[in-house]
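Exam revision sheet. Question 4 asks you to relate a sequence to its structure. Input first:
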Amino acid sequence: MKDPEDILRKTQTTTRSFNRHLKKIATLAKIEKNLSYHIARHSFASIARDRVNIQILQKLYRHSSVTTTINYHPNFVHKDFDEALDSVVNFI
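Answer key, structure tokens:
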């Protein structure tokens, strides 16, 4: 079993490095917003939620429960209903 403190330390180091690289990319791309791993994760989630199955997103986010994923993306519940209604209403 790996030492939890070692895992935390490595995760923090990797996250800091990733954030530094994102800031360099933002500067080169002339993006004025603050980019970070956290922002990148949420941006991915916003783009993916309409394109990727909820169970796959659950695995990608490493959520132990699909309920957690749904709570972050409540439109999943409505999306299925909306698509079902659209298939009936827009059948022509």
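Marking note for examiners. The radius of gyration is 18 Å.
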